[in-house]
Queue: 2 jobs
Job 1
Amino acid sequence: MSSVTVRVPAKVNVQLSVGPLREDGYHDLVNVFHAVSIFDEVMAKESESITVAVHGKWSDQVPVDDSNLAIRAARALAKHAGRTYGADLIIQKAIPVAGGMAGGSADAAGALVACNELWGLGLPFEDLMEIAGDLGSDVPFSLLGGTAVGTGRGEQLSELPTGGTFHWVFALANGGLSTATVYAECDRLREAAAADVPWPQLDDTLMEALGTGDAYSLGAHLSNDLQAAALNLRPELAPTLDAGRQHGALGAIVSGSGPTCAFLAIDATHARDLAQSLTATGAAHTTVAAHGPVHGATLV
Ligand SMILES: C[C@](O)(CO)[C@H](O)COP(=O)(O)OP(=O)(O)OC[C@H]1O[C@@H](n2ccc(N)nc2=O)[C@H](O)[C@@H]1O
Ligand SMILES: Nc1ncnc2c1ncn2[C@@H]1O[C@H](COP(=O)(O)OP(=O)(O)OP(=O)(O)O)[C@@H](O)[C@H]1O
């Protein structure tokens, strides 16, 4: 086989509950991930060494050196297999960069699946999941997709069956936010408020809404403990969220660490209308409609 292509989705967090800061610098989470139909494609081609090239709308914001998460993933896989392998990784980027939608994690997951295939390693999914967890907290979910609860740093996953398809609109922001900076801002706000940080708990009503496919209830129960921090760092996101609610979104939330804003719509038609209203009124400059849940990293 001389080349392999893998498609990997973006995510939104429908519940993101952040526990106290741990000694290792991470936070324990209850993180309900939901994969949505915005996809990066990662192609792996036979080569002597491991290289990366990035194409698409956001390509100029993505590093092509050894810090690229797809390169790091391919290297980690080769190391796990105990041999030196090469692959030219070609990424077609549609997921916003540093947008809180796990774009880099998607490329890492895509590279794991593509190189496992290209190099004929035949490693089982569990091995890929273990390597993924070492690469980043969101990478295992990018492999798995669907809807799932993440605990620990977010890397320990349990799949959640959902009762239907949910329709979303994403408002993309100018410029990204660093995930570490948003977590640090969350800690700073908590320290300033001298608030006790409770151990994160799964929201049972949200679980029920996902299970029955009840978009109204899901919209009412979306929650994100990083939202206050993201809004502090990017105050201009608050009016965008308000505009979405005014235009009938069932729920409006910052996606993960932001700055992308996510709006839950009633159905596909409502999502299209909502996306149009947000751009027509200037509340958002770019919107994307998408649905979830969708599969994780998949060979095409
Ligand atoms: C905000 C989310 O996207 C929600 O799914 C994730 O929690 C972030 O996952 P990620 O981007 O894969 O993050 P990682 O690469 O693992 O970690 C980046 C940085 O985010 C912070 N971090 C991340 C995950 C976590 N449970 N606690 C943290 O405090 C740490 O400062 C860490 O150094
Ligand atoms: N393949 C990649 N795609 C995007 N960014 C990458 C990639 N590899 C490394 N990066 C770096 O990682 C940083 C974070 O990018 P990413 O798109 O993963 O953020 P994010 O979507 O906010 O992540 P998350 O939602 O998982 O917290 C970028 O600013 C970029 O410098």
Note: The chain has a mean pLDDT of 97.
Job 2
Amino acid sequence: MGKAKGKHRLDKYYHLAKEHGYRSRASWKLIQLDSKFHFLHSSRAVLDLCAAPGGWMQVAVERVPVGSLVLGIDLVRIAPIRGAISIEQDITKSECKARIKKIMGENGVKAFDLVLHDGSPNIGGAWAQEAMAQNALVIDSVKLATQFLAPKGNFVTKVFRSQDYNSVLYCLHQLFEKVEVDKPSASRSTSAEIFLVGLKYKAPAKIDPRLLDVKHLFQGTIEPVRKVIDVLRGTKQKRHRDGYEDGESIVRKVSSAADFVWSDTPLEILGSVTSISFEDPTSLPIRDHALTTEEVKTLCDDLRVLGKQDFKHLLKWRMHVRKSLSPTQKASSTTAIDGEEKKHEDEDDKLLNEMEELTCAMERKKKQAKKRDAKRRTKDKARKATGMQIDAMEDGYTDHELFSLSSIKGKKDLVAVDSAENDDENGEVRDSENDDENDEAQEHSSSVIDSDEEQRRYDEQMEEFLDQVYERFVTKKEGSTKQRKRARQAYSKQLLEGDGDDVVIHSDHDSDEDLGDQEANPLVVSLNDGEVPTKEEITSKWFAQGVFAEAAEDGDLEKYDSEAEMQVDRQEEKLAVPEKTAKIAAGLKHNQPETSKTEEDFEIVPAPATDSSDDSSSDDSDNDDVETKAEILAYAKKMLRKKQREQMFDDAYNKYMFDDEGLPSWFVEEEKRHCQPMKPVTKEEIAAIRAQFKEINARPAKKVAEAKAKKKRVAMRKLEKVRKKANTISDQTDISDRSKRKMIEQLYKKATPKRPKKEYVVAKKGVAVKAGKGKVLVDRRMKKDARARGMGKPGKGASKKGKNAKGQKGKGSGKGSAKNGNKGNKGKKMGMHE
Ligand SMILES: C[S@@+](CC[C@H](N)C(=O)[O-])C[C@H]1O[C@@H](n2cnc3c(N)ncnc32)[C@H](O)[C@@H]1O
């Protein structure tokens, strides 16, 4: 069955099979099926149809109870397997039946507990024909199973997911109490094979012969098959796993490529037809499009065998071909669906359309960004040429109103700012673009996706989305709406909040119905549901608290009064979130020491007490410094990303900002202990930064590295010179080889840098000797002791050197060394003193 050849076939299971001594990688399929359905351990007689080379037989022998019969049959000879019998037979012939019966009799087996079938017809040809022959072979194996299977016995067969697949499935449903469909991971995802496991054979007294007649089952003759179905089931047909109804499964349902591409419900089409054709005239441009590859055509040919990747590939192809053939049509087709139609549109289809819109928007934005960049570059050039660059800040020009959000009174102003900004950036781009483009640009003004990073993110999102759509597409067929809902919600959430900073989907509803909001500044967000309490309201609410009654009696009201004022200020301050980012950042460090407050409500954080004079703590403070630096850097790193930065700001609004006073001490204590706000950076992130510091510190100083490199260069040059000289010497003919060698040796000796010689100092009693840099202290006593302890044998050279050293040093090395060297060995205990 269209077997791929070559090295790629030798996958993990091939090697595993080799390792375990199985004759075929197919063994793993049976192992995995058995691990799931546990049919082997209780089978005392197993009939393996189409068993060569015997991989399944080997597994069966391993897993069935000892003494069980495992009978393997194949067209080709199966090499003997210990504990199994094999015969050469065609399972479609009646002779095969007789042979089986004979062997059963010989082994005292009345029926088989398990019939296995992994046959593949040994014919070539078109895929459809092959698949049909395969499934016909399956029915042959079913026939044998009905004759030899014991009641409650099990049956495992391989089928191909072609148009006959559902008929086979149906057939098995009639004969077994339960039918499981499984594709073990050992089965290649590229293969259309799938395994059906019929559990608990019903062993009906009579079986309608048409049920096992491939002509009835597979030939596309709907009526007779339906009759068979009706006779045997007498009930309404159920939907099956793959989403096609039994009766429908044998009919080829075709959709035109044009319908699929231009439809707003592509998933509905994918779920309801068996193939997509390119034959009708409207589909011709699609067929001839460069994007419509042979692969796409093959996928379209049989939609029932689509795997996940195929499914995604097909949807992506549709999206691109749609965009390429008619970008405008696409946009209108997705937006022009009237309300009624939209209701009926599948949710996934809607999401798919949104995704497509995003793709278009992204590409549009990319184009615009490119144009903008080009314009900006030319403008800059022109400016430079005329020397017109003016630094506004240099002139001391600052207009505070310019940066005040409160000056933006409504959406209109905002749009004005927005467009002004665009004008500023675009220069004359806008003038040159037509009105339509301008409208689009405004519509998607917040969905600017122009960097590679964003593109990557978008691609990931798209992949994820398609995965979800596929999962839902598959589960939908089983009627699982819950999962679909969940995934959809997750996706919408992602769209709205995940990357919402870049991609905003505008709903028409927004602009039309929220007219009442027009006068409010949309950037200034109320944290109080739009209702801003007045200063008086807040004050009175504050004083309404019970505690003030007591305080009034104690005459403490003055203090509370100022506190209330502060609360009011803070409330007001909350209303203009973006203007307070500096303070928010300060709020990140929650466990600040006491803060003092000024009338302008600045919070002055006292610097932590440090004592630079304290030397012992300098190490600690160094460590603290590194720790703090690492932490700050980790924050900074996070703040580089817009989304994370805003998240940090948002998180920084917490109760610690208010530094409540007058709380019961036990409460404060417990809060301190248990209520620690989460830092926006993790320990690991800080550790990573510290590791970076370490790495930087570990690098040699630039000067040292340079000096080393220079030294190396000089040495190399020297050696190069020597090499040349050596060559000239060796080329000379009038000198003997021996002298040549000597001369060359000398040359190299001179050139190689000499290591400073070690100086050996012999320790002598009563003479002080300093064994500093380059000096080695040699002490006879020490040597002897070491030798006595068996710690090592001083080499000849060492003693010789020692002697030399002694000779060199002569008297001078004298007595004091005994003090030095022998001190430890004076060892009264040992009594070894010299
Ligand atoms: C994929 S192999 C089976 C592998 C086997 N399960 C194993 O684990 O080694 C398919 C086998 O079906 C056999 N086959 C095809 N048609 C057959 C038939 N009519 N009768 C018997 N064997 C047949 C082929 O000869 C081939 O060996």
Note: Residues 23-24, 26-27, 50-56, 74-76, 90-92, 118-122, 137 surround S-adenosylmethionine (CB under 6 Å).
